[in-house]
Design brief:
292 residues, alpha+beta, 32% strand, hypothetical protein PF0899 fold, six-stranded mixed sheet
Length: 292
């Protein structure tokens, strides 16, 4: 695999991670296990979850027992059932005529496409097939006050605000920022990445255009969405260039391969991502937000 002492390969790897950051930042609030470890499609990956911890209780001085409580960290399994792949090609003639950094710019463009595919898979799970509870919420109706309505829906459905992520469609996300001081609460991330951490006490408020059109959004416990990613290792020596781009903060990995199509006189680059996602706890720790 790539030796990142080789600057030629380090630059496209870093470009790829910059491109996929807007995807990772939207998903970082959910339970996940990202790793650069190699694996194969269909593997079951165990994700630790803290969604069922009970409330803290008074310490019993008489017993001096620091091991009180019956809850433990739960383990939920997610299948690596998504293996996305995308490639691009440029002819040797065009490569000589066009001023393009094929490795850097190609890696960045492919990572951007891959990020959109990952988001679509994750946010596409928020529907009435996977989640049974629903409540009415539409910022456009000028419900007074809007944020109080979110608190009310969470409370009525047994969701703790501080452990819940609010995902809204673009219209309701924009309307919600319109009735809040986005410069104070959303800041740069709220405008650039459509992601606001800790807004009004929620874990995060996120915008997604990949929600089912029947729904305005969802309030979901952050530990009841599981995401796992691994890396598909190419055969040693099979490609002139092959490397993996791993985000140092999350461990999320993309695999790159560069090869030649001699018959067509083309240089090709492909990226693939092996991941899985699922709604945990039978979808009981979430509530869909529907139109009025």
């Amino acid at each position: 695999m790539a030796d990142f002492d080789n600057l030629k390969l380090k630059i496209p790897a870093e470009a790829a991670l910059q491109a996929i950051y807007p995807t990772l930042v939207k998903l970082q609030s959910f339970a996940h296990t990202y790793s650069e470890a190699a694996d194969k499609p269909g593997t079951q990956v165990v994700i630790p979850s803290f969604a069922d911890l009970s409330a803290a209780s008074d310490f019993q001085e008489g017993t001096n027992d620091y091991g009180t409580g019956v809850n433990e960290i739960k383990s939920e399994s997610v299948s690596l059932n998504h293996h996305l792949c995308k490639s691009i090609a440029i002819s040797d003639r065009a490569l000589g005529e066009v001023d393009v950094d094929f490795l850097r710019d190609g890696a960045k463009a492919l990572a951007d496409v891959m990020g959109r595919g990952i988001q679509k898979a994750v946010f596409g799970m928020f529907n009435d097939t996977n989640i049974s509870l629903s409540a009415t919420f539409d910022v456009g109706t000028k419900q007074a006050p809007t944020v109080h309505k979110l608190y009310q829906i969470a409370a009525e459905n047994g969701l703790d605000v501080e452990d819940s992520v609010v995902v809204l469609d673009p219209k309701n996300y924009a309307d919600l920022l319109g009735v809040t001081d986005y410069a104070m609460f959303g800041g740069r991330e709220g405008v650039l990445y459509s992601w606001v951490p800790n807004l009004y006490g929620f874990t995060a408020v996120v915008c997604s255009q990949d929600l089912d059109s029947n729904w305005n959004g969802v309030i979901i416990n952050r530990n009841s969405v599981g995401i796992a990613s691994r890396w598909v290792e190419p055969l040693p020596g099979a490609y002139p260039m092959a490397w993996k781009a791993t985000d140092p903060d999350s461990g999320f990995t993309l695999g790159y391969r560069v090869f030649e199509d001699l018959a067509k006189g083309q240089r090709r680059m492909s990226v693939d991502c092996l991941f899985g996602c699922g709604i945990l706890y039978g979808g009981k720790k979430a509530v869909l937000l529907k139109n009025t």
